[in-house]
Amino acid sequence: MKVGEQNLAEEIKNRNSDALDYAIDNYGKLVYKIIYNILNSFGDKESIQECVSDVFTAVWYNIKTYDNQKASFKSWIIAISKYKAIDYRKKLIKNYNIQNINHYNTTALNDTEEYILASENKDEIIKIIKELGTIDSEIFIRRYFLEESIEKIAKSLELTRQAVDNRLWRGRKRLKEKMLSKVKREMI
Predict the structure, then answer these.
(1) CA 174, CA 3: separation in Å to the nearest integer?
(2) CA-to-CA distance for 8 and 72, rounded, in angstroms?
(3) Rounded distance, CA 154 to CA 142, Å?
(4) One digit per residue, pLDDT tens: the chain, 188 residues?
(5) HSE of 167, CA atoms in CB hemisphere, 13 A
């Protein structure tokens, strides 16, 4: 049977490898672009290609969860691509040596963070973050390096949002003080 958009999902459900080839041919560039946009600053081409392969593997093994009444096949594969890439990004960041912070592409929330992340002495920053204490340094890393939401951090650490906000505020204040005193020492 000839594979097309109308019978693509059915043919994959029937384990027709031609249907998977059709999906790769027709959606491969789209999947690659989505993953590239999410992983570009975190992974190399090999990681991106591996994630693309995982997307099509997920399509093959999870096709039974696809419901054409809820979404088009294209929308479904876009969602799989997005979530696989986000998972890969988290895995890459966690596996990456925190000492080599130059590769992180984070967005600073205010002038303090912009100064800290732009600073050339990143080893000093890591040292200061580690001095914050176990919970505070974990909160700080998860928020500013792993870009997790405050709500997610609070839930996973069984803290209130206010407690996480307070710990982040104190951490930023302490980092600012330490970095300013370091700059003053260097100017003398």
Answers:
(1) 61
(2) 11
(3) 11
(4) 688 788 888 888 989 889 889 999 999 999 999 998 888 776 678 888 899 999 999 999 989 988 888 888 898 999 999 989 888 888 877 665 443 444 444 443 444 555 444 545 566 677 777 777 788 888 877 887 777 888 888 888 888 989 888 888 888 888 778 777 766 776 66
(5) 24
